[in-house]
Write a structure and sequence with these properties.
- By secondary structure, this protein is of the alpha/beta class.
- The protein has two domains: 185 residues, 3-Layer(aba) Sandwich (Rossmann fold), CATH 3.40.50.1400; 135 residues, 3-Layer(aba) Sandwich (Rossmann fold), CATH 3.40.50.
- Helix content is 45%, strand content 18%.
- The strands form four sheets. It has a four-stranded parallel beta sheet, sandwiched between helices. It has a four-stranded parallel beta sheet with strand order 10-9-11-12, sandwiched between helices.
- Strand 2 and strand 3 form a beta hairpin.
- It is globular, with a radius of gyration of 22 Å.
- The protein binds the ligand C=CC1=C(C)c2cc3[nH]c(cc4nc(cc5[nH]c(cc1n2)c(C)c5CCC(=O)O)C(CCC(=O)O)=C4C)c(C)c3C=C and fe (ii) ion (2 copies).
- Keywords: Cytoplasm, Heme biosynthesis, Iron, Lyase, Metal-binding, Porphyrin biosynthesis.
- Its EC number is 4.98.1.1.
Length: 354
C-alpha cells in the first residue's frame, strides 16, 4: 500500500503546456522509503522456501564461495529449514492480517511517519522489504511514477552491518540501475549512538520494568549475531552494538554487571560473535540469578528472532536452568518512542529537500 501517495499529473512544463504526445509528467515530490529485512508471505513450505532461498543466496549474508555454499543451500538447507522455520513463524503469525509481525509493524511505522510528515504536502512515504514483498524495486517504481524526484531511503538497522545495511543499499541501487530517469537519492546512516535512539531505548526499558512485579537482577541487550570472520574482515557491527550498550548504561546509570551485551540467532557451523544469548542466560540461572529481562536494541520491530527465539526459547532455557522470572522487553516498534527515532532520522536527511 502506498501512503500519502498523490499521482496528480501536470500538463504543463516550466516553459508552457506539454506538447502533443509527450509522456505524462507528475508533480515533483520527495519520497521517504523505509526498508526492513523481509519476511515470508506465508508459513507454508513453498512461501518459506522462496523467502529463505532469496535471503540465503545473498552474498552479503553468506560469504562462502558459491561452489561450496550452493550445494549445501539447495541440497540440505532448503530441504529442511522451510518446514522447521514455517512452524516457528506459525507461533508468532499475525492471524488477523495474515502476515508476520515484522510486516505489520513496518507498515504501521510507514503510516505513522506519513501522518507525522503530513504538514508537507509534497512528501510520499512508503515501505519495502529487502527480501520478499513488497520488493524495493516495485515500491521504488510506484514512488517515481507518483512523481518522487528525490528519495530518502532508510535501512531500518540502528547498527551498521554489511549483512543488513549494505545489502539494502545494494538492492536499492540495483533497482536504480534499471531506471532511465533516476531520482536523486540519500540513504539514512546507522544511528547506534544517536541520543534520540539511546533515549528511546532507555524510556521504553524504564516503562517496561515499571510494569513488572519483579526487579531483574540482570538486563541483557541481545543483538542479532554475525559470523566472527565478518567482524575480523572489518564489519563495524560489533563495535556499534558495544557502543549502543555503553551509552545506554550511562543513560540508565547502570554498571557492567547489570546490563550485558550478548548475540543471538546463530546460523551454521561457524563461530559467531560472542557471548551467545542462550548460553549467557543458562549460565546466569545456574549461577543463581533468579530474575532476568532481555531486550533487542538492534531490531526496529518485533519479529521471529525476538518473539519466538528470545521471548519463547530463551525464556524457557532460563526457567529450565533454574531461573524464576524472565521478561522480554518489546522492541521500539511503532511506539511513541520508536516513532520519535524514525522521524528525527528522516527529518534530518530531508534537510534542504522538504
Ligand atoms: C548467515 C545468516 C544470517 C546472518 C549473517 C544474519 C544477520 C542478521 N539478521 C538480522 C535480522 C533478522 N534476521 C531475521 C531472520 C533470519 N536471519 C537468518 C540468517 C542470518 N541473519 C535467517 C535464516 C532468518 C530467517 C528465519 C529462520 O529461518 O531462522 C529476522 C526476522 C525476520 C522475520 O520475518 O521475522 C530479522 C529481523 C540482523 C539485524 C543481522 C545482522 C546484523
Ligand atoms: Fe538474521
Ligand atoms: Fe568492537
Amino acid at each position: 500500500m502506498t501512503i500519502n501517495q498523490r499521482t496528480d499529473m501536470t500538463n504543463t512544463t516550466a516553459t508552457g503546456p506539454l506538447p502533443q504526445g509527450h509522456p505524462p509528467v507528475a508533480q515533483p515530490k520527495v519520497g521517504v522509503l523505509l526498508v526492513n529485512l523481509g519476511t515470508p508471505d506465508g508459513t507454508d513450505r513453498a512461501s518459506m522456501r522462496r523467502y529463505l532461498a532469496e535471503f540465503l543466496s545473498d552474498r552479503r549474508v553468506i560469504e562462502w564461495p558459491r561452489a561450496v555454499w550452493y550445494p549445501v543451500l539447495y541440497g540440505i538447507v532448503l530441504n529442511t529449514r522451510p518446514k522447521k522455520s514455517g512452524a516457528l513463524y506459525d507461533k508468532i503469525w499475525n492471524r488477523e492480517k495474515d502476515e508476520s509481525p515484522l510486516r505489520t509493524y513496518t507498515r504501521s511505522q510507514g503510516e505513522k511517519l506519513a501522518a507525522a510528515l503530513a504538514g508537507h504536502d509534497n512528501i510520499v512515504v512508503d515501505w519495502a522489504m529487502r527480501y520478499g514483498n513488497p520488493s524495493i524495486e516495485s515500491v521504488l517504481e510506484r514512488m517515481t511514477k507518483a512523481g518522487c524526484r528525490r528519495i530518502v531511503m532508510f535501512p531500518l538497522y540502528p547498527q551498521y552491518s554489511a549483512t543488513t545495511t549494505a545489502t539494502v543499499n545494494d538492492k536499492f541501487f540495483e533497482a536504480l540501475m534499471k531506471m532511465r530517469w533516476q531520482p536523486a537519492v540519500r540513504t539514512v546512516p546507522a544511528y547506534h549512538d544517536e541520543p534520540v535512539y539511546i533515549d528511546a531505548l532507555a524510556r521504553s526499558i524504564e516503562k517496561h520494568l515499571a510494569s513488572l512485579d519483579f526487579e531483574p537482577e540482570v538486563v541483557i541487550a541481545s543483538y542479532h549475531g554475525i559470523p566472527q570472520s565478518y567482524f575480523k574482515a572489518g564489519d563495524p557491527y560489533h563495535c556499534h552494538c558495544q557502543k549502543t550498550t555503553r551509552l545506554l548504561r550511562e543513560r540508565l546509570g547502570w554498571d557492567e554487571k547489570k546490563l550485558l551485551t550478548t548475540f543471538q540467532s546463530r546460523f551454521g557451523p561457524e563461530e559467531w560473535l560472542q557471548p551467545y544469548t542462550d548460553k549467557t542466560v543458562e549460565r546466569l540461572a545456574k549461577e543463581g540469578v533468579k530474575s532476568v529481562a532481555v531486550f533487542n536494541p538492534g531490531f526496529v520491530a518485533d519479529c521471529l528472532e525476538t518473539l519466538e527465539e528470545i521471548a519463547g526459547e530463551v525464556g524457557e532455557t532460563f526457567h529450565e536452568s533454574g531461573g524464576t522470572n524472565f521478561s522480554h522487553i518489546p522492541c521500539l516498534n511503532d511506539s511513541e518512542e520508536g516513532m520519535a527515532v524514525i522521524e528525527e532520522m528522516v527529518r534530518r536527511e530531508l534537510g534542504g529537500w522538504a
